[in-house]
Each structure stands twice: as structure tokens, then as C-alpha cells.
Design a protein that fits this description.
With 665 residues, the protein is an all-beta fold. 3% of the residues lie in helices and 59% in strands. It is built from three helices and 45 strands.
Length: 665
């Protein structure tokens, strides 16, 4: 059976492992151990105290998932939806929603380097190895903007194997081409690779006047890497450079009466997003551990027309992290991660029609550490602490003239206790914390009541169990959590003059469950369930004094998310390879688009179905046929009220059919 989705997510029971069939069959059924690196040290996923989900490229690509913001179809208690454009994707994990476009609650990393928030909707690389999702808060290791969690995208590094991979997609709503060339330059010393990708997606809206298609998107991506890693040396250095350009007029909106017809409101909307990314990562193995240096630099240029208004913005981000990680294989009673982090962000947003410019310069400094004390073969205690210090300078010039500076400090502790009840069952209790930094709104206008906002601090308590039973034919993981956020950051005001402010206290609690059943060789049944209750414990909105929304649900936080996937392996005769028919269903509960919880600004619960079949002839030739949103379900992903015009919505994509061919040389 090929390696496909492997997310082990949490259970209540099953501490025993009775016999299921003969020994040979049981050995064949067992899945290999899975190692994660998003914890900043290599850890067996079943030994990590906290919820972790993992997705492999086979599962993603076979289902037509080519964007990072589509993986919620595989992970429990996760809801990812586009808001306005793919540059502003909204992640909600365990009720923690990214209501601010610039200050998300989930961090995205690619090969250890932090990414600009505008890249959450980026194409996944052809040489993807896996995606790891650590459920938050993850403030101790990652600092700011990880209260919801961290998504880590890991690619295969160039090595001694020369390989060329060509992949193409033909679909009724999209077509795509990818090519990857990886080669040794000097055997056992120097390696390199280059990749190119282009994807064109049809629009899902109709022009108000002509009824023609509207909302097309084109993504182009290029990347080159050079790796120096002598086989006999403890040094491994990789230099990378990439450029991504997205051009689209997908920022279309429909009025309530047109939610089903998809006729867009007739107002100009288009954008071009250009992102340049550069990275230099180096590791060096020493007697006391592995020293790593991770340097990143990104420039983002977004030329955007939204609701007829030209609002371009630019951002430059530099990051540097140094860390020392112990060797987990040395048998020591103490494993550790210690490090230092620096980031400098330079942002500018312009609204020429209002003669308004907003500039922000933010410097962040941090020291962090985490230790795992193996008290015995069964009992571990993990402690961690991070100190963050941030300086923010903001300048507003034009219709509103402002200039201010603020500094913020945050301590993010962590404590967990893990106990290996049996070889196949682990209990843990976890306290973790995180924060979203304070700052100054980037949407300056005369309507803004306040320019600055305070940091949001989040504390979480989690109890979990990870277990296997029936000789590895059953994996069940479960976790219950309670999260409290003070000075919750929320977009307030009315469009188009919304801005970020603190809006009170928020409580989020719930249960996550993931089950994998492999009853016979070749058959995989996997399901996930997330139950979440996220509400305002208190509410204080400066744009609506006296309004009390205590008890209202948080925007973009469904109470129920669920998914179920089935796959079966069929061997073909005469050496014609293997077929993998598969099907899945995802459910998203009712979502409110603002904190007032009105029916007009909501989407009721809905399910989407997908199905397909993958054919693998050998390691060099494969094909994937898929149908996404099989029943062509109509639903909204984003909504807001526009004064004088009414309620506007953006729609989810309808049914998509595609065929992907992949050839490797």
C-alpha cells in the first residue's frame, strides 16, 4: 500500500491490542513510524504532547488539492476559507480565527522559513514531502501569531539522485503544468534543483452586463535551489530563491438575491500579487547537538483594485533564527531546543483616491527554549518559555496624519506531562500559550476611532490520548481543550472602513477526534471530527459603545467540522500497476461572518463530497482522476454589509473535474 494521508489525531479508549489475524498479515498492516519536524526537533508524532496532523502529497494531489489553503478537507477542527482573495485566506483552528488580514492566528512555514501571510493560498510544490499541522497555541517555539497553530510545508531536498518530474492537469475548471529537475552538480558534495509551475483557474462568477465568465486566476511560480552537503561533513547549507506571481479578478461579490446565480455586482475588482522569496538555511552537527541558522527575506507587492478603489501595498520582511537542538538519539535523559529570533517588517499601504498612506516598521526580538525531561521510559515532562519584545512604528499621512511608536513584551510558557500507558497508548496533559502582537491599524481613515490596539494573550489547557489497537489496524487520537483569550483582536466598524481593535475576552473549548481503521489489507477508512464552542465572554467594541454581544459566537468559527475518507487498493493483472479508488465527504457547520450573528451574514452548515481514482503504473508513471464538490453544492465563504448597498457575499467553488498525469524520469 502506498504512503498516503497519515494524520494520527487522538482517542478516548483502546489501550489493549488483541490479535486480529495471522502474524504475517499484521506485520504488513502496520504503518511505519512518522517523524515530525515542526517541533524544531525530530520527534515521533505519537510521542508529541499535543495534536498533530500530517498530510502526504499522494492524498493531496489525488484529490485535486494543489493549494495550501485547501488542506482543511483532511484535518479536524480546521476551517480554511478565502476572504476576498487568496491573498487573504482565513484560518480557523479550534475557534481561533484570522479575522485580521495582516495579523493571522496561524503561521505558515516552508522548509523552516516563515512565510508572508499573503502566501497562505500558494501552490504546493511538486517535490512536497508532507504538510505538518501543529495545533496551537504554539507561542513558545514560534512566538507571535501562532495562537491557532503552525503549518509546516516540507519539501524534498536536492541530493545525489538525478530526477525529472513532469506533471499536467486538464480539468473543466482549471489546467496546470509543473516541471521539476533535480541533479547532483558535484557528486556527494553539491546539488541543485529548479522547478516551474503555472495554473489557470476559470472564474465562478458571471458578468452583470454580458453574463460572461468572471473571476479567473493565473498563478505562475519559479524556484531554484543550491545545496552544499558533503557526505563526510557535518555541514548542510541550502540557498533558495523563488518568485510567485498571481493575477486575478476573483474578488467578485454577489448580493443576497444573486447567491445562487453567481451574478457579480458590477464594480471593478482585480489584483496582481508578486512575491519574491530568498532563503539561506544551514545546519552543523556538533557533539552537543545540531546548530541551525535560518535566514529569510521576502518582498511582496500587491497592486489591488477592490470595489473600484486602487489600494496598492508593499511589504518587505527579513527574518533570522539561530537554534541549537540536542540529538534525540543519544539516549540522554534531557532533550532541548534553545534559540534566538529576529524579524524586521516594513509595510506600506496607499489609497490614492483618499490621499492616504500608511507605513509600518516592526522589529521583533525573541529568546526561546524548550526541554523534554525523560524521567523514565514512560514519563516525560516538557517545559518551555519564550520572551518576545516588539517595537512598532507607524506613520499615517494624507487625510489622516498620525505618527506613533509602541513597544510590547510577551512571555509564552509551556508545560506538558506525557505518560506512555502501554507501548501503544500515550496520555498527556498540556498547558500552552501564545499571543498576537499589538500595533496600529493599517487601514487608516477618518472613521477610525482609535489608531492603536493592544496585544492579545491566549492560554490553553489540553488533555489527550494517542492510541493504537488491533495490531496497528486501528488508530484513534482524541484531545479535549479549553482556551482563553484576553484583549481579543477583531475587525470592527463597517466596510470599507473596518480596522483592528481589541473587543473583549473570548473562550473557546471543544473536542477533536481522529480515527483511522484498516480492517483488511488495502482498505483505509479515516475520519475526523471537531466540536468547538467559541464565544465572547465579554464584549467591548469601541466602534459600537454600549453594544453587548456577550455569548455571541466568534466569526468564522463553526461549531462542527468533520471529514471522512475511504480508499481501497486494487492490484491490476499482468503488471499494469495498482488502482486506488477513493471518496470523501467534508462537513462545515454554520458560520457567522461577523460578531452580530445575524442570519443575513451567515452560511448554514453544509457538506461537500469528492471522489476519484488514482492509477500507479510504477514509480515513474501515475494518473489521478478526481471530482471535487461532486453535488455542485452552493455556499458562501465570506460576507459583509456595505452601507447603502446591502449584504455582499463571496462564493465557494462549484463542481470541478480533473485529470492529472505525472511522469518521472
Amino acid at each position: 500500500m502506498r504512503s498516503r494521508l497519515v494524520h494520527f489525531t487522538l482517542p478516548f479508549f483502546l489501550l489493549a491490542t488483541p490479535a486480529f489475524a495471522d502474524d504475517a498479515a499484521e506485520e504488513a498492516a502496520k504503518l511505519p513510524p512518522i517523524t515530525v519536524t515542526a517541533t524544531k526537533q525530530e520527534r515521533d508524532v505519537e510521542k508529541v504532547d499535543g495534536l498533530v496532523s500530517i498530510a502526504t502529497p499522494d492524498e493531496l494531489f489525488s484529490r485535486g488539492i494543489r493549494y495550501a489553503d485547501k488542506v482543511d478537507r483532511l484535518f479536524p477542527d480546521t476551517n480554511i476559507r478565502q476572504r476576498s482573495s487568496r491573498a487573504y485566506s482565513n484560518f480557523t483552528i479550534r475557534g481561533q480565527s484570522s479575522v485580521d488580514f495582516y495579523n493571522p492566528t496561524v503561521q505558515l512555514y516552508v522548509d523552516g522559513l516563515p512565510q508572508d501571510p499573503a502566501t497562505f493560498g500558494q501552490l504546493l510544490p511538486l517535490d512536497l514531502e508532507r504538510i505538518e499541522l501543529l495545533y496551537g497555541p504554539q507561542g513558545t517555539l514560534y512566538g507571535r501569531n501562532a495562537v491557532g497553530g503552525v503549518m509546516n510545508v516540507i519539501t524534498r531536498k536536492p541530493d545525489n539522485e538525478m530526477r525529472m518530474v513532469v506533471s499536467g492537469l486538464i480539468g473543466d475548471e482549471a489546467h496546470e503544468g509543473d516541471i521539476l529537475l533535480s541533479t547532483p552538480i558535484v557528486e556527494d558534495v553539491l546539488y541543485g534543483d529548479i522547478s516551474l509551475a503555472r495554473r489557470d483557474e476559470d472564474g465562478i462568477y458571471k458578468d452583470f452586463f454580458t453574463n460572461s465568465e468572471l473571476g479567473e486566476t493565473r498563478d505562475e511560480q519559479a524556484r531554484i535551489r543550491l545545496r552544499y552537503a558533503p557526505s563526510a561533513s557535518p555541514l548542510d547549507v541550502m540557498l533558495s530563491a523563488s518568485r510567485t506571481v498571481t493575477e486575478s479578478d476573483e474578488e467578485q461579490f454577489v448580493l443576497a438575491a444573486d447567491r445562487r446565480s453567481g451574478v457579480a455586482f458590477p464594480i471593478p475588482a482585480e489584483y496582481k500579487l508578486a512575491l519574491n522569496s530568498y532563503g539561506l538555511t544551514a545546519t552543523y552537527d556538533t557533539d552537543i547537538g545540531t546548530f541551525s541558522s535560518l535566514t529569510g527575506y521576502q518582498t511582496r507587492q500587491l497592486d489591488r483594485v477592490i470595489f473600484g478603489s486602487f489600494t496598492p501595498e508593499d511589504q518587505k520582511t527579513f527574518s533570522q533564527e539561530f537554534r541549537l537542538v540536542s540529538d534525540p538519539g543519544n539516549g540522554s535523559a534531557l532533550d532541548y531546543v534553545i534559540g534566538a529570533y529576529y524579524q524586521y517588517l516594513d509595510f506600506e499601504r496607499r489609497v490614492p483616491a483618499a490621499l492616504q498612506t500608511s507605513q509600518h516598521k516592526i522589529a521583533s526580538y525573541a529568546l526561546f527554549g524548550e526541554t523534554i525531561w525523560h524521567i523514565s521510559d514512560r514519563l516525560d515532562i516538557t517545559t518551555g518559555l519564550r520572551l518576545d519584545y516588539e517595537e512598532a512604528e507607524a506613520i499615517g499621512s494624507g487625510a489622516v496624519n498620525l505618527r506613533n511608536e509602541e513597544s510590547f513584551t510577551a512571555l509564552s510558557p509551556k508545560l506538558s506531562l506525557g505518560y506512555q500507558v502501554t507501548e501503544n497508548a500515550r496520555l498527556y496533559a498540556l498547558y500552552s500559550s501564545g499571543f498576537k502582537p499589538g500595533g496600529f491599524t493599517r487601514n487608516i481613515s477618518p472613521a477610525n476611532i482609535s489608531f492603536a490596539y493592544d496585544p492579545q494573550y491566549t492560554h490553553s489547557f489540553e488533555l489527550g490520548l494517542k492510541a493504537k489497537a488491533l495490531n496497528d489496524r486501528l488508530h484513534v487520537d482524541t484531545a479535549a481543550y479549553y482556551t482563553y483569550s484576553d484583549d481579543y483582536q477583531l475587525f470592527v466598524g463597517v466596510q470599507p472602513n473596518q480596522y483592528l481593535q481589541n473587543a473583549g475576552e473570548v473562550v473557546s473549548y471543544g473536542l477533536d477526534l481522529k480515527v483511522g481503521v484498516y480492517p483488511i489489507d488495502g482498505l483505509r477508512l479515516e475520519g475526523g471530527l471537531g466540536l468547538n464552542h467559541a464565544t465572547f465572554e465579554s464584549y467591548d467594541n469601541p466602534s459600537a459603545p454600549g453594544v453587548n454581544l456577550e455569548g455571541n459566537r466568534l466569526p468564522y468559527a463553526p461549531r462542527v467540522t468533520a471529514n471522512f475518507n475511504v480508499e481501497y487498493e486494487i492490484g491490476l493483472p499482468d503488471g499494469f500497476g495498482v488502482l486506488f479508488p477513493h471518496a470523501g465527504v467534508s462537513y462545515t457547520g454554520e458560520v457567522y461572518f461577523d460578531e452580530y450573528n445575524t442570519a443575513a451574514q451567515s452560511q448554514s452548515g453544509y457538506s461537500t463530497f469528492d471522489a476519484g481514482v488514482s492509477w500507479i503504473y510504477n514509480d515513474n508513471l501515475s494518473a489521478d482522476f478526481y471530482v471535487d464538490n461532486l453535488t455542485d453544492k452552493h455556499y458562501a465563504v465570506y460576507g459583509f454589509h456595505q452601507l447603502g448597498l446591502g449584504d455582499f457575499y463571496q462564493l465557494g467553488r462549484g463542481r470541478e473535474v480533473g485529470l492529472r498525469m505525472t511522469v518521472a524520469f
